Structure formats: C-alpha cells, structure tokens
Amino acid sequence: MYWQYKSKTTPTSIEELKRLLLAERQIKTAAEIETFFHPVHPDQYSLESVGLSSSAMKRAVERIHQAAHQKETVVIFGDYDVDGVCATAILWEALRAVGVVAQPFLPHREKHGYGLTARSLKALLAEHSPDLVITVDNGIVAHDAFVELKKRGIFTILTDHHSPEMIEAAPHYPEADIIVQSTQLSGSGVAWFLARELSPLATQPSLDLMSLATIADQMPLLGINRSFVVHGMAALKKTNRIGLHALMTTAGVNPVELTTETINYVLAPRINAMGRLKHSLDALRLVCTTSAERAAALVEELNSTNTTRQELTSDMIEHALQQAAQWTDQNIIIVADTRYHEGVIGLLASKLVETYGKPTIAIAIGETLIKASARSIPGVNITELIRMVKDDLLEVGGHPMAAGFAALPEKLASIQSRLEKLAKAKLTAEMLTPTLEVECALTVELVSLETAELVQELAPFGKANLEPIFALPVMKVVSSEAVGKAGSHLKLNLTFNTVNGPQFLTALGWSKGELAKTVAAGAHVRLAGTLCLNSWKNKQSLQTVIKDVVIIAE
C-alpha cells in the first residue's frame, strides 16, 4: 500500500502539529479556527451560506402556508435510508406545527425502486389524492414523474441535495413548481432549513435527527455539517424521542458515549435495514412515536431485520468474492447473480471495494429487472461513468462515490461489456493503486497522550475531517497475537526509545489477525495508524489503531 503524505513536514511540537492538522483541513484564520472548535448553532447560518435560494425558499414557505389555510392534502415523498427517513420526519413535524397534517410516503425498494419512479408515483396516487407533493432527499433526476404530476395539476416542491443531470455541461432540472436544492447539505439538511423557515421553534427538537442523517449520509463534517453534528449529537445524547432511547438501549449504546462511529456502525445500520429488506415506514414510525410500547415493538422489528441483513450480507460476500476473482485483470469489478438481494448489494459492493481497491458494481438479477448498486474509490466518479451507458438503463442516480441503476435483464451483458471498456479507457494504474492518506510523520516525542488529546479536539470525525492517520517511527514488537472471534484481529505490544527512556504502545489492527503470522515478536515495524486514549479503571493509556504495517528489514 502506498502512503500518501498530506504534509512532508514532520512537526516537532504539539503546537506545530495542531497548526498543520488545521491547515490540512483548510482552517487557517482565527475566525475559521474559532468556528471549527466552537461551531455556531445551525440557526446562525443564512440560506445563501449553505447554497440555498432564498427566493425559492420563500415561495415554498408561502405555498405550504397556503396549503395549511386551504386544508389541502399534502404528501411528503421521502427515501428509505437514514437520511430520507430523518428528512421525512423533520418536515412532517414542522408541517404539523403550522397546521398541515401531511401524509408520508416512503418508497419500497423492491416494489418501487429508488426515488420518484413511475412505479412509486403510481402507488402514491393510488394511496392519496394530493394537492401538494413535497419530495425530500430525492427528486432531482425524476423528470418523467414531475411532468406527470404537472399534467395532473398537482403542485410540487422538490427538495433534494443530489446533483441534477448535466446536458451539454448545463444542469438539467425537473419541471417541479419550486426547487429547493443544495449539495452542501444532506437531504435532511435541506428539509431542516425549510422547516426552520416554516417554524423556527419546530426545528429545535429535530437536531437529534440531523446528527443521525448528516453522519450516516457521509456529509463533509466542516462548516454547517459540523455544526449540525456537534449540536445535533448534544441533542441526541439527551433526546426525548422514546424510539431513539429504545433503539440505543437495545443496541447497548450509552447515549453519553455516542460518537460518529457509534452512529455509523450501530444505529444507522438498524435504521437502514428496514429500507433494505422490508419497509422503512417502521423506521419512520420509530423516530416519531410517543408510545413506549410501540417503540419497543418497532425496535424489536429493526433489530431482527438487521440480523437477517447481516446473515444475508455474509452469504453474498462469500459468493461474490469467488466471482470477483475473475475480474482481477479489469479496472472495475462487476458481480451479478439471481441470489443477490437488492437490499444489501450496496454493502456487498462496499466490501469488494475494500478488498480489491477498485470501483465495484453489485447487481441483483430479477425476472423483469436488474438492480445495481455501485461504490467507488477516491478520484473515480462512478455516477458519471455509469451515465455513459444510460441508453442501456431505465434509471440511474447517485453521488461520485456511490450510485445505483436499474435495467432490463437482457441489457446486462451490454452494460458489463461497455463499463469494462470505459473503465479500461478512463481509469489509470495510478488511480487504482491502493493509497493510504497519512497526515504526516511523527517524532517519537509526539507519540504521546498529549497528541491523542489533540486528536480528540478535532472530533467529530467524518468525511473532510477524517480521524488523523500518522506515520509512526520505527518500533520493536514485544508481542504479537491474533485476538477476538476466530482470531480475526491483530494485537501488538510495541516499544520505542525516547529521551525519557523506553516507552510502550499497544496497537490494534481490526480484521488484520492474519498478520500475526508474519509480524513476530522481535521484528522492527513502522505503522500508519490513529492515536487514541484507552481508559481503564480511571487510568488512561496511549493506543494506536493500525491502518497499515511495514516490516523493516534489519
């Protein structure tokens, strides 16, 4: 693995290291530093500062107040992931605060596909007779659906954070009556600002949902999104939402100890599981319920579904790894099978990217449709690549790092062949070289508790503010062992010399248990890893989480 240093400077003091870490996050001025360490409340951000049109927002607010006055039927069309569920809840609560009892509609992954498709629109119109439809976290590429809604005389407000399609280098927007969109925010973020303009008081209780959505949707955690997460996690730790309390209790999460990792790996998967395998309406009901009995039943359903999701994913990964081995000479990996469940192919694609370091597309083959989920690597816009074959597709959408599409089964061979050729033509060997971004090298003096404390000041971590990875000085392995279930993790006890004498460091390598066979006691190694504090019986010790290890030849 190639270590790419963000800075060639090796800091010699904690002050110099702090300046370096901030500068690499483009935080340089006194005002920027103050905002980073003490984020202002989201209320303090103007619409324009987060990429939202104040005129479009004003029109949307006026139209919603009109709907309240005229007692119109309003439908919120959301999405089935954490961001979509939270966005729907945030807007539903705000609409209720201004006198609109809106009906939420969340599409079913298998029945309706992603977003405002022809199938989901048909179901929406069959269930409701709306005067006004508001989308959250989707809609920006749903051109046909908005044309149909306009024909039917149904007023539409499109709120989304995804990018529109581009035609001849110009954005191509759907024919919605009002469009409130910004790529700086999550879908929930856009909904939250609409809610704020409708009823400022109604948005305060929804900050807990904002932290969930912003983290789970992998938004850059700087500026407004850092504000949402810092203030939102504070709200989440003392939330009054019975459902979220029940979810955390059942998952063994202490609210006081919540981190972005807890949300990403414990809470978000349970919420997402419903949209993957069943219906996300139960996840929406969970975050909105005021009944403890109802919350307990819903949490049991979420946990059970998540367990099924884990089992399905494990079986699919085992099969896909065998299939993916056939793509080792290609610049892209495409796996497809009738046994793949479309609800978890995104997780499957992520695992293959992690394993092979190449853009990956996992495809569930159905009788009448194929559904695909794609994940990418830094520097490769997978959505743009897929859109180059859109004449073979029925639906396509996504981000630079993640995308999805649907097509007819008979188009599978053509799609695979064309994408394989495109990847060969457009992706270079350099782009496909596994790379680990390292902040900088550390001296032995800075492998310290003080550095770990500095790192914690930079939290919460996420996209654009990743937990710093450092290149540590050469150390000697005192002991090496495979630990955890089936010996899947690596534990090293290390020693290194400083001006104050020998120091010791514990290093953990998650899913690196195999390395215990090659990294033996007595070896000299150089690690790339994070530095953190390990608290045990009121004592703190320094610990590193290994990202890569190099054995130094003696």
Instruction: Count the domains.
Output: 3
| The CATH top-level class label of the largest domain | Alpha Beta
Per DSSP E runs of 2 or more residues, the count of β-strands stands at 21
Count of runs of 4 or more consecutive helical residues: 19
The biggest beta sheet reads: 5 strands, parallel
* Global geometry: globular
Strand content: 15-25%
Average pLDDT for all residues: 94
Our measurement of the CA-to-CA distance between the termini, rounded to an integer number of angstroms, reads: 21 Å
- Helix fraction, binned, reads 40-55%
Low-confidence stretches: none
What is the alpha-carbon Rg in Å? 25 Å
Strand order of the largest sheet: 3-2-4-5-8
Q: Can you tell me the CATH topology of the largest domain? A: inorganic pyrophosphatase (n-terminal core)
- Computed structural class: alpha/beta
Q: Could you provide a short overview of the structure?
A:
The chain is α/β, with parallel strands linked by helices and 554 residues long. Helices cover 41% and strands 22% of the residues. The chain has 19 helices and 21 strands.
Which structural traits does this protein have?
five-stranded mixed sheet, OB fold (Dihydrolipoamide Acetyltransferase, E2P), 41% helix, single chain, five-stranded parallel sheet, alpha/beta, inorganic pyrophosphatase (n-terminal core)
Characterization of the model:
This protein has 554 residues and is α/β, with parallel strands linked by helices. It has three domains: 2-37 and 435-552, OB fold (Dihydrolipoamide Acetyltransferase, E2P) (Beta Barrel); 42-204, inorganic pyrophosphatase (n-terminal core), CATH 3.90.1640; 328-426, Roll (Diaminopimelate Epimerase, Chain A, domain 1). 41% of the residues lie in helices and 22% in strands. The chain has 19 helices and 21 strands. The strands form five sheets. The chain has a five-stranded parallel β-sheet with strand order 3-2-4-5-8, with helices on both faces. Helix 4 packs antiparallel against helix 10 (207-216), helix 4 packs across helix 14 (281-288) and helix 10 packs across helix 11. The longest helix is centred in the middle third of the chain and has 33 residues, at 292-324.
